[in-house]
Amino acid sequence: MSNVPSELKFLSSHEWVSVDGDVATVGVSDHAQELLGDLVFVELPEVGATVSAGDSVAVIESVKAASDTYAPVSGEIVEVNEELEDSPERINDDPYGDGWMYRVKMDDAAEVNDLLGADDYSNSIEDGE
Amino acid sequence: MGKKTPLHQSHQDASAKMVDFAGWEMPIHYGSQITEHEIVRTDAGMFDVSHMTIVDVKGKDARPYLRFLLANDIAKLQVQGKALYSCMLNENGGVVDDLIVYFMEDNFYRVIINSATRDNDIAWLNRQSANFPEMTLNERDDFAMIAVQGPNARDKVLSIFSENQRSQIEALNRFMATDIGDYFVARTGYTGEDGFEILMPEGMESNCWKQLLDAGVKPCGLGARDTLRLEAGMSLYGTDMDETTSPLISGLGWTLAISDDRDFVGKQALLDEQQRGVEQQLVGLVLKGRGVLRNHLKVITPGGDGEITSGSFSPTLGKSIALARIPAGIAGEVEVEVRNKRLKADIVKIPFVRQGKPNI
Questions:
Q1: Among A30, B102, B183, B210, which one is most buried in terms of CB atoms within 10 A?
Q2: Average of pLDDT values for A31-43?
C-alpha cells in the first residue's frame, strides 16, 4: 500500500497539496510515483507564472511514460524545486518531502476546501485498481 | 490472471512488481528499473525469460528445412554448440519473427523465439515444414530459462557450478552453447553485456535462482531488459520490425545471407526491394535536450518524415535515445515532434553503449 499522509489534500489525478498560510506546496503522491516508476525528467512551471486550478502546469516523465500534472489551486508560482532538474528521482525517493514540485501563492485559500482529504483520496486509488 | 513462469514465487519473494506481458505475468521491476539497468552494466543481473518459446527441430530434414525457413544461413553453423541470430520472413519479405538457432548436433537444432508471437510462429513453422517430412518440431514447455548478464556475470555463474562443469563453461566462446548435465548454457543475451542464458528442466529453476542470488546476482525485470537492449542497439520484435517491414529497412540487413543461390522464404521479395532501391533505414537517435523520445513519435527530416520505433531513456548516457525508421540517405540532425514541440536529435551509429561504456 502506498503512503497517504493524513494532513495533506489531494487531487484524484494524484497531486498533493500542503498549505501554509496562503502558500500551497504541490507535489505528486507516493501512489503516482509508484505507478510511473523511475522518473527521469521533470518540466516545472516558471516562477511568476499565473496558474488556474486544473491547468496542466508541470510534466513528469518516467522511463515508461510522460504525465501531465495539474494545478490543484489558482494563484502565482512563487517557487519551484530546482533540485528536481538534476535529481528527478527525489520524487521517487521522497514524494512528500524532497520531491515537492512548486509553491503557489493562492488567490483564494478557500479553494483548498474543494480538494480531497486523505481518506477520500485513498478510496479513489482503491477504486482505480 | 496470466500464465505464470516456474519462477513466479521467486519474483514475489523478491517484491517484484508484476505486469502482463503477452499473456504472461512477468516482473517489470523489483523496485527500480534504473538501478537494475545499472547493475547489469556494472555487475551482474538476472532475468527470468522462461516465457520465451523453445522449439527443438530434429531429423534428417532439419537442416534443409531451417535453410529454407530462415533468412540467415544455418550452414554457417559448423561447430556444435554454435548459435546464429536470424529473421524468418513471409513471402513479402516482412519479418514473422527474429530468433536464435543453436546447432546442437547433426540433425538437431534448437530454436528460441519470442513469446508474444508464439502461436503465430508455431503455425508458421508447421506451415513451412510441408516439404520436409523427415523432421519433427517439438515445443519445449518443460524448460525454464534464466539470463544472467553483466561484466561480472561470468564469474558469478561459474561459482554455482562444480569445478568440472566450470571448465566447460569457461571454454565457451561468445555465441556458443553447451550441455552441462541437465543445464543448457549459452553465452548469449539481450543486453549488450557478456553473460549466459541458462536453460534447465522445470523444477531446477528455483534452486538455480537462489544459488545465483546467493552469488550476488540481482533480479532484474523486463523494464531494465528493454532499456539495456535499446542501448545495445538490439531490435525488439513487434516494435522495430514486424510482418509489414523487411529486414532491409529494419537495421537487420547484416543478418541476411542473400548473395548465394540458396532459396529461402521471402528471398525474392528482398531481391526485388534491393533492385528497386531500399527506401528507408533504421537509425539511432540521441535527443539533444531534455525530454524522452517515445515509440511512434514523428521524425522530421529533409528527405521526408519518419517514425520512432523504440524510444526511451538511456540510464548509461543520461539522455533519451531511440531507434527510428527514416528515409534512406539521411544523416546528421533531425527533428522529433514531442508533445507539440519540435526537438532536435542527432543521428548516431549504434550501439549507443558498448560493454558498459557510452559509444557515441
A1: B102
A2: 94
Residue of A38, A42, A61, A93 to mutate when probing chain B, most B C-beta within 10 A: A38
Find chain B residues with C-beta within 8 A of A89's C-beta: 34
B127 touches chain A (CB under 8 A): no
What kind of architecture, by CATH, is found in domain A9-107?
Beta Barrel (2.40)
pLDDT score, position B9: 97
Give the C-alpha distances (Å, rounded to integers) separating B96 from A62, B90, B122, B239: 31, 6, 11, 12
DSSP states of A75-124: EEEEEE-THHHH-THHHHH-TTTTT--EEEEES-GGGGGGSBPHHHHHHH
pLDDT at A129 over 70: no
ipTM entry: 0.86
Please write the tens of the pLDDT for every residue from A69-123.
999 999 999 999 999 999 999 999 999 999 999 999 999 999 999 999 999 999 9
CA–CA gap between residue B122 and residue B21 (Å, rounded): 19
- Burial class of B147 by CB neighbour count within 10 A (0 to 12, 13 to 18, 19+): buried
Q: Where are the domains of chain A?
A: 9-107
List the grid coordinates of B203: 523444477
Q: Between vectors from CA B301 to CA B300 and to CA B306, what angle results, nearest 5°?
A: 60
C-alpha cell at A88: 528527478
Distance CA B283, CA B148 (A): 28
Instruction: Report the interhelical angle of B222-231 vs B33-42 (nearest 10°).
Output: 50
Asked whether the beta carbons of residue A92 and residue B294 sit closer than 8 angstroms, the reply is no
Indicate the residue of A41, A63, A92 with minimum beta-carbon distance to B290. A41
Nearest-angstrom CA–CA distance, B198 and B186? 6
Q: What is the pTM (predicted TM-score) of this model? A: 0.94
